[in-house]
Amino acid sequence: MSATQPEPAVAAAPTANPLFPFVLQLADTSLILAHRLSEWCGHGPVLEQDLALANIALDLLGEARSYYQYAAELEGRGRTEDDLAYLRSAVEYRNPLLVEQPNGDFAYTIVRQFLFDNFHYQLLKGLKDGPDTQLAAIAEKSLKEAAYHLKWSSEWMIRLGDGTPESRQRLDKAIATLWRFSGELTTPTAAETNLQELGLVPDYAALLPAMQAHTAHVLAEATVPVPEGVFAQQGGKSGRHSEHLGYLLTELQYMQRTYPGLTW
Amino acid sequence: METLAQDLTPEAQFQARIDADIRIEPKDWMPEAYRKTLIRQISQHAHSELVGMLPEGNWITRAPSLKRKSILLAKVQDEAGHGLYLYSAAETLGTSRDQMLADLHSGKAKYSSIFNYPTLSWADMGCVGWLVDGAAILNQVPLCRTSYGPYARAMVRVCKEESFHQRQGFEVMQTLCEGSVAQKEMAQESLNRWWWPTLMMFGPADDASPNTEQSMKWRIKRFTNDELRQKFVDMMVPQADFLGLTVPDEKVKWNEARQAYDFGEVNWEEFWAVVKGNGMCNHERLQARVQAHEEGAWVREAASAHAAKHAAREAVAA
After folding, report:
1. Residue A94 in 3-state DSSP?
2. How far, in Å, CA of B281 to CA of B268, rounded?
3. In this complex, is the C-beta atom of B64 within 8 Å of any C-beta atom belonging to chain A?
């Protein structure tokens, strides 16, 4: 069940390359999730998982930088990766709602990560075989990392679901809260549909069977029923965000906004 | 006449090995006091890595560029890694990570006092790398040759990464000092706050350091606190000059006769106050660690419970 995508809050600036807004969307998505994961640094439930969370954050941050650099090149207006990350407002950000959701407890972080990883992994598999060589190269590099992320979050879904009554209760609550943000990942915006028709972006409908099969497998191991008929909350990819993103960007952009135009 | 090794007491044999610079390994006999001293020192070091993640972690979400964010996050992650090697090294002496963490959380075990100072500006990410890691390296490089094998080997890896961190910190400072007036002021203000606390990282003056003599004899320690403090000042004053920054000590002056810098007296009252828990962030740092541990309890329990269920199912299937 998915609602249609709302109109963009702010029209994207006209640009010659139709891939630009999509690459920017990928960049925003990886950056915002990396930022959320980095908030765990020093506060993880056990040292090994602190390391794992930071590791995933670093992978996503590296991936985001590759996309921002490529987006800047596609745009060709002299903006840098930092201009794109630090000097755009919340309504200009194009990440899906899922990744901006707060960390909550470890179960929230795991469910958010699992939903993202399951999509991300399949998306990168599609992009790596795509016709745009630069995007294919970034996808190929990131795919190895994404495979590890998906393994990590899947294992934790299983541990928490089939762990203790408390972990199960927390996991159920996180699923009930976050599952509604998963639909947006595979619902194309008008811009994405356009790119899919041009053959530049994989058809999301074609990614779904593999994603659903993996979800069914992991949740069965976790002894958790697969949620059904969940409403798909949407808007992030069109710049209509939850209230959380504004605070995140306030922190992320603090230095660049306070001291404009300097080198760090 | 040469004394045969077997005629010596275990203590004398042990000291003979130390004197010959032969490493002590986990299964070797060692005096109980040596074991205790090492557990205290290594666990304190591990705790410092763990708590040390917090002041820098404080700026990960506000780092001024994507490159700096990535470097800082990687650095803090390295510290978590150092914590892991060091807890493992301490475990070879017969303690457990749970026990060490319990001692940290109860306040029984200490960690480096430097982390009880707040990080208030981006320039602090420069000073922590440049000065704090710089001081840590001076303390730690001799530990690569310390008498206890697992600790020495862990330190080789730690030191390599620390010197990388120190260069990154210096580079943050250099970028600020080559930047705008506001950036240079930010750098100077940060140096003003971190200079004296980093001098305190070498510990009390030699005449007030009761553990030094025994630790030197066991070759756990290879230089005294004051020797290392002098080395640090001699290394850092020219670097501050190079950056165009002023060390906040009017008594800093090159002494031709000593071929070293003279410098002022550390405020030992402040040193002991922070050691005793009254620094700006003692409460917050410990609280953050206790909270992470307590809030993580259900996660650790879930992982053990799942592992047990999984093992039981495997056993039935077999």
Report:
1. coil
2. 18
3. yes
**For the segment A62-73, what is each residue's pLDDT rounded down to a tens digit?**
999 999 999 999
A159 CB neighbours in chain B (<8 A) are 302-303, 306
State the number of CA atoms in the 13 A half-sphere of B139 facing the CB: 20
Rounded CA separation A141/A124 (Å): 9
Q: Domains of chain A by range and CATH?
A: 19-258 (1.20.1260.10)
Q: Residue B220's pLDDT is what?
A: 81
Side-chain half-sphere of B110: how many Cα atoms within 13 Å?
13
Neighbours of B65 (CB within 10 A): 18
Contact A42 B296 (CB under 8 A): no
> What is the rounded distance in angstroms from the CA atom of residue A80 to the CA atom of residue B21?
55
Provide CB contacts within 8 A for B11, sequence distance 6+.
Answer: B31
Instruction: Give the nearest partner residue to B66 out of A85, A162, A254, using CB atoms.
Output: A85
Q: Answer yes or no: are the C-beta atoms of B262 and B252 closer than 8 Å.
A: yes
Q: Among residues 32-51 of chain B, which lie with CB inside 8 Å of chain A?
A: 50
Give whole-number Cα distances, A260 to A83, A118, B28, in Å. Answer: 10, 38, 60
- Contact check, Cβ <8 Å, A167/B299: yes
Tell me which chain B residues have a C-beta less than 8 angstroms from the C-beta of A67.
Answer: none
> Which residue is closest to A156 within chain B, CA to CA?
B303
Identify the residue whose tokens are 């993640």. Answer: B53
By 3-state DSSP, what share of chain A in percent is helix, strand and coil, each rounded to 5?
A: 65, 0, 30
3-state secondary structure of B179: coil
**Nearest Cβ partner for B292 among A43, A162, A164:** A43
Q: Does the complex come out with an ipTM higher than 0.90?
A: yes
Residues of chain B contacting A39 with CB distance shorter than 8 Å: 60-61
Q: Across the strands, what pairs with A232?
A: A2
**Residues written for chain A:** 264
Token output for A125: 């598999």
Q: In whole angstroms, give the CA distance from residue A24 to residue A3.
A: 23
pLDDT digits (tens, 9 = 90+) for B161-194: 999 999 999 999 999 999 999 999 999 999 999 9
Compare CB distances from B68 to A39, A55, A264 and report the shortest one's residue.
Answer: A264
State the DSSP string of B183-242. Answer: HHHHHHHHHHHHHHHHHHTT-S-GGG-TTHHHHHHTTS--S-HHHHHHHHHHHHHHHHHH
Could you say which of A50, A252, A259 has the minimum Cβ distance to residue B61? A252
pLDDT level of residue B1 (50, 70, 90 thresholds): very low
CB–CB contact A159 B302 (8 Å): yes
Q: What residue in A sits closest to B186 (Cα-Cα)?
A: A259
The DSSP bridge partners found for residue B261 are B254
Chain A residue with minimum CA distance to B68? A264
B181 touches chain A (CB under 8 A): no
Dihedral of the alpha carbons of B302, B306, B307, B311, in degrees to the nearest 10: 160
